[in-house]
Design goal:
single chain, Proton channel OTOP3 isoform X2, about 575 residues, two-stranded antiparallel sheet, mainly alpha
Length: about 575
């Protein structure tokens, strides 16, 4: 080879080596471009999500403006009852009730009957205890309005006949609303979604304003007290200009019935708001075939050998019923003796520490047991936790106000010391019970199979190739039976969880019954009422007590889930 050719070949080899050095080695191939159909489908899904968020935003703003408008009317009535009267607030609420009633009827007769309107139903929404409470408190609220109408009719000689229209509208509205929520609380509507969201938010705002008015409006209570004072002056020989009832016996029935059923109206409005919010969240929601039905292996509610929890809970229930009956008999008289207040608060001082210790022991058992945490996203469970924490603020708020009033006045009397201990123990019991229930709700139930990621990936890969979900359902049932069989023996930790859950269920039923169906010692003992004033303490109690009753009901539902999961 000549020297010139040798130089040329060396130059070429050097150039090739430099070129190879500059080329990237081991880089992945450029990603395959998605097909037109895939890109078009993704765009449609993105637009659907954007439209859903826009509909939720618009309906939420509608509810916010309605609540602000009604709140402005109610505040104006409180602070300037000459320019804005209670009648003006009733007219506004009557208009909102009529609009909500028209939408409820349209939803039942129009939207829900359209083809493919309700393709899915949320199995976790509207459990039986929520719907039962809805019917119970709705019936009590209707009876409350009947008593109110009877009271107004007995004073018709000094009242306007137009006032009878408002209770009639409320009875019709609440009857239709209860029926619609009972039948359609699980619906996941797929048609007319924006209109449905706006209707749900309008109805929710109406119920929220009814609750605010019930909490702040004490006009009926003041009228009853003024009539009783006038009646005492009439017996003493003094004349009075107060509007008197034509039939004293009938008026006494209406008066007692109204005062006893008054807290149920606020409780009913709170439950309706919760159910309507769940329905609003479910509008346009798509459920998978597996989440659209109850799990086939979910166990029924059985005792499973639990002994001490039910016995102690029944003992607390019987003692609570006895204290409740004695206090109610004494409350039917002209005044309540102080020893009955002492008995009432002493019962709470005994029961609340036992419940707190049980909750702490249950939380410790959750930390020791073998069940793993359920980290999957669950909107219903998240809402349960929010409602549980929010409802606990009612009784805790009353307790803190009572603590301030007692410490600032006479903390050394026996009754005041009992009320102080009751308030502190109530706060502690709410905190410990919330920890126990929330920890239990986030544990994977034993009847729910814990599938591994490999199994889930395999099922996800095989699912598009299958013609039906029958094989997948059979696999899940086999896995569920194997999982339950491996933990079929009740060990001491699970047995203790069941005992604690049953004890707390019965105690919460007792503490739900006493404020829900009777006279409220928080308002009748006179200590806080004298310290804060009648109107302020009336608002605090009517704000906190319905939330407390709702908390006890919601706690029972959560404890049943904890019991079944163990």
């Amino acid at each position: 080879m000549s020297s010139s050719e040798r130089k040329t070949s060396e130059a070429e080899s050097t150039y090739d080596q430099a070129d190879m050095a500059t080329k990237p080695i081991g880089l992945p191939c450029p990603p395959k471009q998605k097909s037109w159909l895939t890109r078009h489908f993704s765009l449609l899904l993105r637009r659907d999500r954007q439209a859903q968020k826009a509909g939720q935003l618009f309906s939420g703003l509608l509810a916010l403006n309605v609540v602000f408008l009604g709140g402005a009317f109610i505040c104006s009535m409180i602070f300037n009852n000459v320019a804005v009267t209670l009648g003006d607030v009733w007219i506004l609420l009557a208009a909102l009730k009529v609009l909500s009633l028209l939408w409820l009827l349209y939803y039942v007769l129009g939207t829900a009957r359209k083809p493919h309107a309700v393709l899915y139903r949320d199995p976790h929404a509207g459990p039986i205890w929520v719907r039962g409470s809805l019917v119970l408190f709705g019936s009590c609220t209707i009876c409350l309005n009947v008593f109110r109408m009877g009271y107004d009719v007995s004073h018709i000689h000094c009242k306007s006949e137009v006032e009878l229209v408002f209770p009639v509208i409320e009875i019709i509205f609440m009857s239709v609303q209860t029926w619609v929520l009972w039948r359609h609380c699980k619906d996941c509507v797929q048609v007319q979604t924006n209109f449905t969201r706006c209707g749900l938010m309008l109805t929710l705002a109406t119920n929220l304003l009814l609750w605010v008015l019930a909490v702040t409006n004490d006009s009926m209570h003041r009228e009853i007290e003024a009539e009783l004072d006038a009646l005492m002056e009439k017996f003493s020989g003094n004349d009075t200009n107060t509007c008197m009832c034509l039939n004293a016996t009938v008026c006494e029935v209406f008066r007692k019935g109204y005062l006893m059923l008054y807290p149920f109206s606020t409780e009913y409005c709170l439950i309706c708001c919760a159910v309507l919010f769940v329905m609003w969240k479910n509008v346009g929601r798509h459920l998978t075939a597996h989440s659209g039905a109850h799990h086939p292996n979910r166990p029924p509610f059985r005792l499973h050998g639990a002994i001490f929890g039910p016995l102690l809970g029944l003992l607390a229930l019987v003692a609570g019923v006895c204290v409740f009956v004695l206090f109610q008999i004494e409350a039917s008289g002209p005044s309540i003796a102080r020893q009955y207040f002492t008995l009432y608060y002493a019962f709470y001082v005994v029961v609340l520490p036992a419940m707190s210790l049980a909750c702490l022991a249950g939380t410790a058992m959750h930390g020791l047991e073998e069940r793993e945490l359920d980290t999957l996203k669950n909107p219903t469970r998240s809402l349960d936790v929010v409602l549980l924490m929010g409802a606990a603020l009612g009784q805790m708020g009353i307790a803190y106000f009572s603590i301030v009033a007692i410490v600032a006045t006479q903390p050394h009397e026996l009754l005041n010391q009992l009320i102080l201990a009751y308030s502190l123990l109530l706060i502690l019991q709410h905190i410990t019970q919330n920890l126990f229930i929330i920890e239990g709700l986030h544990r994977r139930p034993l009847w729910e199979p814990a599938l591994s990621e490999d199994v889930m990936g395999k099922q996800g890969a095989e699912l598009p190739r299958r013609g039906s979900l029958r094989e997948l359902g059979q696999d899940l049932r086999r896995a569920s039976r194997a999982y339950i069989h491996s933990y079929s023996h009740l060990n001491w930790k699970r047995r203790m969880l069941k005992e604690i859950s049953l004890f707390l269920i019965l105690c919460n039923i007792t503490l739900w019954m006493m404020p829900a169906f009777g006279i409220h010692p928080e308002f009748e003992n006179g200590l806080e009422k004298d310290f804060y004033g009648y109107r302020t303490w009336f608002t605090i109690v009517n704000f906190g007590l319905p939330l407390g009753v709702f908390y006890r009901m919601h706690s029972v539902g959560g404890l049943v889930e904890v019991y079944l999961g163990a």
